[in-house]
Amino acid sequence: MRTKYFLALTIAVLMGGGMLLFANPPAGSGSISGKITYTGTPPKMKPIDMSKEPTCAKQHTTPVLTENVATGPGNALQWVVVYISAGDQESSAPSQAERYDQKGCQYIPHVLPMVATQELQIYNDDQTSHNIHPLAKVNSEWNKSQPPGSPPIDTKWEKPEFIPVKCNIHPWMHGYFVVLKTTHYAVSGPDGSFEIKGLPPGKYTVSAWQEQYGTQTQDVTISGSENKPANFTFKVLPY
Amino acid sequence: MSAEAQATLENESRIALTAERRPQVSGFPSLASGTPTSETGMWVVVAAISMSFAAFTSSMIVRQGSSVDWLHFQLPRVLYANTLVLLASSLTLELTRRRMAAIPAASENSTAEAKALLSNGVYWLYVTAALGLIFILGQWLAWRNLAAQGLYLSTNPSSSFFYVFTALHGVHLLGGIGGLIYVLRKFKGINTNSSVQMNSLGAFSIYWHFMDILWVYLLLLLVMRM
Amino acid sequence: MGKLFAVVVAIITIISVAIFVMHTWWMPIDVSTNGPAIDRQMDDTMIGVGVLFLAGQLVLAAFAWGSSNTSSGRKIKIFPGGATPLVAGAIILVGLEVLTLTFVGSKAWGAIYVAPPPADSMRIDVQAEQFAFYFRYAGPDGKFGAIHPDKIDDGSGNYFGLDPANDIAARDDIVVGSLTIPVNTPIWLTLHSKDVGHSFYVRELRVQQDFVPGLEIPLHFTATQTGKFELVCTQLCGLGHYNMKAYVEVVSQGDFQQWLKTQAGQ
Amino acid sequence: MQETSQHAVHQHAPPTSFIRKHVFSLDHKVIGKQYYGLALVAVFIGMVLSWLMRIHLAWPTWPIPGLDKLSAVGAPGGVMTPEYYLSLMTMHGTIMVFFVLTNAPFAAFGNYFLPIQIGAEDMAFPRFNMMSFWTTFVAFLVMVTAFFVSDGPPISGWTAYAPLSAIGKDAGPGLAMGQNLWAISIAIFCIGSLLGALNFIATTLDLRTKGMSLSRMPYSTWAWFVTAVISLLAFAVLLPACILLILDRTAGTSFFVASGLVLSDHLQPHSGGSTLLWQHLFWFFGHPEVYIAILPSIGIVATILPVFARKPLLGPRATIGCMIAIGFLSYMVWGHHMFVSGMNPFSANLFSVPTLFITIPATILTLLLIGTVYGAKMRFTTPALFCLGFISVFISGGVSGFFLAQPSLDVYLHATYFVVAHFHFVMAVASIFGVFAGTYFWAPKMFGRMMNETLGKWHFWLTFIGVYCIFMPMHYLGMAGNVRRYSAFVDDYLIPLIPVHKFITIAALATGAAQFIFLFNLIWSRFKGPIASDNPWEATSLEWSTSSPPPFDNFGGRHMVVYQGPNEYGVEGSDKDYVMQTSPEKIVTR
């Protein structure tokens, strides 16, 4: 009788230990946050004339601007991808798919970070045909049109790469797929702020990438559940 | 009409169906050209090939006129040697035709004489083929020469056209050599129906001489344009 | 059967012609100085050809009707006079029509394409690309910046490939997605293509001209009425061809100057 | 009475094995039927493509059942993408122009009947003849393969204008592998056509039987001969064009691609090519191609109409002269496709004048045909009806040429549905009507069985009215400035025209459906139709002097001698109302 209980207990302990041993490392509680800013005069974002596509034009009350250097109050710089470029353990891609929208003849979001081999779903929410043409070099390039009402395009990217995306029907539509190795990344918002959560203790290299001004890096060490600051400043030119 | 007249009619008309030379027949409208079908066909081929090379030529002129990136370069010397080789091959071909044409007359005297003519003619035909192959080889050397200068097919429109012209002419000439082998097979032994042999030889020589003329034309064109 | 054929052909012919005559579907209003000549030419041709069409079909119908009488008593008839009068008539009539059409038509054509643009024309650059038109005004300095294909970047809206960093003239160039022009002013467009062949077609202006990659094609016209018109691409240029269009806004001189100022301000 | 000889010489003995008999046969009759079969397959493929396009134009958001099975990328959920529409359009144009309009009236009927009509036992070069068919067949296979490559068929139209066709995948879907296959297929097709033309010319010149002078050749033979000359020169130009295009695409040369082009954000590595060069080369072939399609049908109708009118064709020599004149002029007018292409505006008039002058021989031909109907005792069989229908649609298609030949009107009408209407009427429908007439007329000779008249008449009426319902409205669309080659009509001024497109679509579906009556009739009569006599229509030309179908050597060892022209109908003082070409009797009356 007793031996039975003892046996069951040992098995349970062993199994539990085994699970502890073999499961992914527990998501850490450390985080990195900061603000992306620029110095210098940024180029003037140009208004986009959508009159050739009335169904899109009427979705916008104020003229849509190009987003290659999107700035905000306090020299904030938007659409900068901040990610762990070194020091992060291997980890499998999250199971839930990333969603990419074509709405009002714009790519939403303008920059979409994702993990290699992660599911990607591309939707056409407009009443017009769109064409998605990721100009991939490392991965394989493709070019598909999506008529209104046709099902979303399910795809994924095998290797890490910064992939420019263009619409062959609406030349002004430009965006980026940022395919990363790590699961730890963030995109700077309109106020330039970002936060990378869930970092286990360790020594990291943090990179910030802007589509026009390239990549900057910093080294950050996380010990325990602390929040380390990391600010990046890009030098911009008017032309 | 009388029976024998009718007989001759049938006779001639039967020959007509085997596409041989035939005389005019009185009482009927004049019939088709006296030339053997094989030669007529060969003239049509010549017309078609001339047309395509005319198209290439005009393309070249338009292309050169349309832009400023036309590169002038030195033609490989070997081309001139090749030209001589090809011209020589036409001469040897004529030697063959002489021999072959003489066979029927000779065979009336002695078969031995005819046989001699035949073998001799065949010999010159082999020489013609050999010269053709030497020409092709020479063209290939010319390509090597250009490649050594860093001029490839896509380097410049001028080099593009050079390779296109020489390659296509070469392909046609290889086809000619194929035809030459076909003619050789026809000259196995003295054939009673020698006109078939003569027709195939005649048609072939039209083609071969045309290849000759075509090359001279292309060479002049290249000399002027490069 | 012959009678039936005659009736069917007659009905088809009359309906077809009627719809043309009623102008049920027709050219839109003409707002250009080129238009009147073209429209006159169109009407002349329409009348001349319409007569040929009617005559041809109806005569065919009539003969078919007649030929359906196969009563044994009737002998076949050869066309009176045989072929010669027909041939001669065709050569003379059609020949004359052809010559007149050519003579009149070549004037209309010359006015648009052969005549050089007036010296005081307003210069506008057009860039056609898969699948949109972009228009460039010289801006306050009246000078166009140079075009550098390697600088072209749709993402940052540099559709012409300007280089404002090093090229002062390019900085104030106005690049927009719609063509705004003053009324009663000769316009002189320079057509560039960024990628493949396109075409510039505005029905109301009665102009059509291809963009040829690698060439700068001049095109000139004068709008005589204000209004908003559609510019569409008529040269197959790829998957978005059907969607390649822009608007042409013809405005008064005052409005145009105003528009220029606001654009230059941006 | 006919002169016969017991032991005629033949160029090649009758084959025995199935393969040599029906597949790799040297017999011009088998080859003719093979061409006809290929054209038949091609025309139904092309027709289905046009259906798909029409449905998409009228109801762009409709999912077409099963289309996503054909191409999941091209039609996700059955809804056609813009590029897939263009792919289907390109394939429709290419298949119809090359594999139907060039093959059916010229290669198919020409191969079968040209040698018989001149009293020859076969073509001059039977081996080349066989090669020409199988080359064409390979070209067709290569073309159809484009449907099944990853990025689908090319989207650059049957004219494949450079640089769109010359750059590759950066220019858009279908322009990588698909366009390669297209260019290769057309190049192969050129070779096949050249071999065919070679045969037609040599045969007509050298193998005419005794008494068959040029002036005694039937008009169909004349048409095939003139067409052969045209296509020899035309395809000899298209072939180089294709070679240069393939080099531009694969070898990095710059014949057609200009400098500094940016496609898909890539600066293309070409320099200095001439875009217009392709257009010149293509249309130098492309315009004669129109006459390659229509001349044989004119000849066929000129041959068939007198048979049923029971009177001679009006102006036989004028007819032949006009065909030659058209063939000659067709080489001076290619530029009228390029009035607004950016070529020197002065040259527009140079091309416009000869173009307009082509209307003169065309008008004469039409008038002569109409004049032949005058006072006839018409036997209204199906082939006769299709001949009359041919005249009608040829007029309708011809007159619109007056507009497009004038640069000043082309400025407005160029690249609109007016053009589509014009060339479909004059080139496609007219040519196909000639083919239908020929089929109903010659099927008894080709298969030894009559086709069903009732079905034939139904087929005629539905088709005749149908094509007018399809193509006449396209003129109105053109007048309203409706641009062609659009996969959807999103422009403000085009939206009101969509009802017209719906009407056209319905008409197209109905007319297409009617073609299955023809298909059924053809297949059913082939096996079940009443046995045909040697000369069921009481016609004069040589094919009716032999059995139906003709023996392997066409005249069963007999050798024909010709005493008459092909035009001896309505002859009085003869026991019949016509005199065969082989009949030696003297004609006194008339």
What proportion of the residues of chain D is helical, as a percent range? 55-70%
What form of chain D results from the Cα inertia axes?
A: globular
CATH superfamily of the largest domain in chain D: Cytochrome c oxidase-like, subunit I domain
Q: Please give the radius of gyration of chain D in angstroms.
A: 24 Å
Counting helices, strands and paired strands, the structural category of chain D is: mainly alpha
Order of secondary-structure elements of chain B:
HHHHHH
How many domain modules of chain D? 3
User: What's the CATH architecture name of the largest domain in chain D?
Assistant: Up-down Bundle
Estimate the mean pLDDT confidence of chain B.
Answer: 83
Say how many strands of chain B there are.
Answer: 0
CATH homologous superfamily caption of the largest domain in chain B = Cytochrome c oxidase, subunit III, four-helix bundle
Radius of gyration of chain B: 22 Å
Q: Indicate the CATH class of the largest domain in chain D.
A: Mainly Alpha
Strand content of chain B: under 5%
Q: Given the structure, what is the number of helices of chain B?
A: 6
**CATH architecture group name of the largest domain in chain B:** Up-down Bundle
Globally, the shape of chain B reads elongated
Give an overview in words.
The complex is a heterotetramer of chains A (239), B (226), C (266) and D (590). Chain B is built from 6 helices and no strands. Chain B is an all-alpha fold and 226 residues long. In chain B, helix 2 runs parallel beside helix 6, helix 3 runs antiparallel to helix 4 and helix 3 runs antiparallel to helix 6. The longest helix of chain B has 38 residues. Chain B starts with a helix and ends with a helix. Chain C folds into 2 domains: 113 residues; 144 residues, Cupredoxins -  blue copper proteins (Immunoglobulin-like, Sandwich), CATH 2.60.40.420. In chain C, the strands form 3 sheets. A 5-stranded mixed β-sheet of chain C has the order 3-2-1-5-8, with no helix packed on it. A 3-stranded mixed β-sheet of chain C has the order 4-10-9. A two-stranded antiparallel ribbon of chain C has the order 6-7. Chain D is mainly α. Chain D contains 16 helices and 2 strands. Chain D has a two-stranded antiparallel sheet with strand order 1-2. Classes of the chains: A mainly beta (239), B mainly alpha (226), C alpha+beta (266), D mainly alpha (590). Chains C and D meet through helix 1, helix 2, helix 3 and strand 7 of C and helix 4, strand 1, helix 9, helix 11 and helix 12 of D.
